[in-house]
């Protein structure tokens, strides 16, 4: 299946949902938690856990940049806070430029892409799913893995 269609299908169950947590973690990592809360290794996460990992990202509102992956930590968190409770209305993926865009109500747009110097097997983002799988976007395509096979990733979910 074409990568664009795979990614759009992967995120389809999230369209219409609202993250109950949106936070900045270590460095410029961003996580969004969707669905019922579950306890994993002493941390609560949603059934759906989206993690912007090794990527450049920006959050805009009406074409005005609120923050990006090089902003000061406080600015990042203030901007990302806007996503908490905002409905995810659409997602697009540009397979030529490897850009993922998530559209939320209130004219919010979260865009991410792999770092320019990223290795082909470096994860740009990861989506943890209710069926205990993780899908990770790399320049080489989507990598799927069982969460049980990657217990270390669970402890890093923030």
Summarize this structure as a short list of keywords or feature phrases.
mainly beta, disordered C terminus, 5-stranded antiparallel sheet, 11 strands, about 15% helix, about 160 residues
Note down, in words, how this protein is organized:
The protein is mainly beta and 158 residues long. It has a single domain (3-156), classed as Roll (ibrinogen binding protein from staphylococcus aureus fold). It has three helices and eleven strands, in the order αβββββαββββββα. The chain has helices at residues 3-11, 73-80, 151-156; strands spanning 21-24, 30-40, 43-52, 55-61, 64-68, 88-94, 99-104, 108-114, 125-128, 133-138, 141-146. The strands form two sheets. The protein has a six-stranded antiparallel beta sheet. Strands 5-4-8-7-6 form a five-stranded antiparallel beta sheet. Strand 6 (88-94) and strand 7 form a beta hairpin. The model is unreliable at 154-158 (pLDDT under 50).
Q: Helices and strands in order, then pairings?
A:
Layout: H1 3-11, E1 21-24, E2 30-40, E3 43-52, E4 55-61, E5 64-68, H2 73-80, E6 88-94, E7 99-104, E8 108-114, E9 125-128, E10 133-138, E11 141-146, H3 151-156
Antiparallel strand pairs: 1-2, 2-3, 3-9, 4-5, 4-8, 6-7, 7-8, 9-10, 10-11
Query: Helix/strand-derived class?
Result: mainly beta
What is the ordering of alpha helices and beta strands?
HEEEEEHEEEEEEH
Report the top-level CATH class.
Mainly Beta
Mean pLDDT: 92
Rg of Cα set: 14 Å
The counted number of beta strands is: 11
Largest sheet: 6 strands, antiparallel
Give the low-pLDDT segments. Answer: 154-158
Report the principal-axis shape.
globular
Strand order of the largest sheet: 1-2-3-9-10-11
CATH topology: ibrinogen binding protein from staphylococcus aureus fold
CATH architecture annotation name: Roll
């Amino acid at each position: 299946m074409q990568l664009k269609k795979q990614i759009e299908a992967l995120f389809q169950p999230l369209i219409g949902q609202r993250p109950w947590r949106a936070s900045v973690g270590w460095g410029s990592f961003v996580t969004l938690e969707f669905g019922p809360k579950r306890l994993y290794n002493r941390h609560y996460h949603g059934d759906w856990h989206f993690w912007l990992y090794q990527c450049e990202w920006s959050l805009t509102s009406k074409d005005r940049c609120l923050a990006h992956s090089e902003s000061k930590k406080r600015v990042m968190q203030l901007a990302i806070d806007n996503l908490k409770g905002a409905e995810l209305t659409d997602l697009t993926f540009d397979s030529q430029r490897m850009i993922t865009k998530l559209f939320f109500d209130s004219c919010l747009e979260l865009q991410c892409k792999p770092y320019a110097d990223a290795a082909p097997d470096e994860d740009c983002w990861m989506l943890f799913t209710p069926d205990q799988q993780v899908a990770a976007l790399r320049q080489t395509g989507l990598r799927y893995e069982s969460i049980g096979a990657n217990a270390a990733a669970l402890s890093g979910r923030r």
